Amino acid sequence: MNELTVSAVQMNIAWENYNDNFNKVVTLIKNLAQHTNIIILPEMFLTGFSMNSKIAIRQHHPYLQEIMLLANQYNVSVCGSLMIEENEKLYNRFVYFQPANQLFIYNKRHLFRMANEHHTYTIGNKKTIIQEKGFHISPFICYDLRFPVWMRNVKNEYDVCIVVANWPHARIDAWHTLLKARAIENQCFVIGVNRIGTDGNNVFYSGGTVIYDFKGTIIAKAQDNNEDIINATIYLQDLKEYRHSFPAYLDADQFTIIH
Question: Rounded to two decimals, what is the model's pTM?
Answer without folding.
Answer: 0.97
